[in-house]
Amino acid sequence: MNRVLYFLAILAVMTSCAESYNIEGSSSLSSLDGSKLYLKAVKDGKVQNIDSCEVVHGKFRFSGMLDTVKMVNLFMDERSLMMPIVLETGDIRVRIEDASRQVSGTPLNDVLYQFIDQHNQMESRMNELGHRESQMLLDGIDEQVINEQLSIEAAQIAQEEDSLVTNFIVDNFDNVLGPGVFMMITAGFEYPILTPQIEHIMTKATETFKNDPYVREYYKTANEILAHQQGLDQPAVPASEPNDSLIQNILNGKE
Prior knowledge:
Blueprint: H1 2-17, E1 20-27, E2 36-43, E3 46-54, E4 59-65, E5 70-76, E6 79-87, E7 90-96, E8 101-104, H2 107-138, H3 143-171, H4 177-186, H5 196-204, H6 207-210, H7 213-232, H8 244-251
Parallel strand pairs: 1-7
Antiparallel strand pairs: 1-4, 2-3, 2-5, 5-6, 7-8
Helix pairs in contact: 2-3, 3-4, 3-5
């Protein structure tokens, strides 16, 4: 009897020490009320449901045991809400507004959304160039002058964005943020390609980053495609793309 009690006591201690995640969410969007929300992740080329809950009066909650820190995405039914979340130990806060999405409360989520905010600011600056072009045309400024001026500004913003993304991935090679953002920037490609930015990142990459399943498969396939293109001197699409089309569908809410 004493042995049974001892075993139960040990089990209780082990359970209490196990890592877990807790997500407390709120939303001002009435369209979310009564909806089912899912946390989904991609593993081995498949979309997996990690957790689910319902939105009740603008509130929702996820919680569970955590075997490893991972990046997931928030979905409403089958539609992506374009909200990456790092599942890590601690109390994670999610706020969904009409014009903003925010995740905070734990170290990696705070770092991720600081990066996302900076990236969004750059996108806003790029979009503003289009409005300025229209206003300059209305003001009667010569079109060639407009193009020259705005092209310089667009190139500067693009260079800043490239540096922001590259530095973020490099700084986070050895946690889930590096591979996660690498997946985000490559998801839109028709098939794996080696851009100068990707080549630069890979020259600096740690073994941990190189051995991430997505990064390893992407880089391997991209090199194979490049070798094939150089041999045939024409574009070649792999017979079986790794996960990029799947990831793109996920980001578009089609998976």
